[in-house]
Design goal:
By secondary structure, this protein is α/β, with parallel strands linked by helices. It has helices at about 20-35, 45-55, 75-85, 95-100, 120-130; strands at about 15-20, 40, 60-65, 90-95, 110-115. It has one domain (about 15-130): 3-Layer(aba) Sandwich (Rossmann fold). The protein has 5 helices and 5 strands.
């Protein structure tokens, strides 16, 4: 499946969103959809990996919460990068972004945004990552 979401400049982007809270996940889906992106939602790491392994599934960015039950967002990102080298990753966290930076989990293809965020903030950040 090719990415089909379009921003106002006509550029496309599909996001694999991983968030264990159903309510939060739905809000973020609506934010990104309103921003012109296609979203593939997943409730956890195992579901995200399963989606990623399906034939014909394509996404431009993994947007994942860091703290989740069963598999952390960092573990998911590590596994996703092994299976899909070059995957761009945007972590979400309710903790201080400085703490995340100090943990050393960010890098060339990894960024972080603090929760809560507005539609404008997440849309702007995703566009910056996808369309530098």
């Amino acid at each position: 499946m090719e990415p089909v979401g379009r921003d106002r400049d006509g550029r496309s982007g599909t996001i694999l969103l991983v968030e264990d809270s159903g309510v939060v996940r739905e809000v973020i889906v609506r934010m990104l959809d309103a921003g012109g992106f296609s979203v593939i939602p997943a409730s956890g790491g195992e579901e995200a990996l399963s989606i990623s392994r399906r034939g014909g599934v394509s996404f431009d960015l993994l947007l994942t919460d860091i703290v989740m039950p069963e598999m952390s967002g960092v573990e998911l990102a590590d596994r996703m990068e092994r299976e899909r080298p070059g995957t761009r990753i945007l972590f979400m966290t309710g903790y201080a972004e400085e703490a995340v930076v100090n943990e050393g989990i960010l890098g060339k293809q990894r960024e972080c945004i603090g929760k809560p965020f507005s539609q404008e903030q997440i849309t702007r950040r995703v566009r910056k990552i996808l369309f530098p």
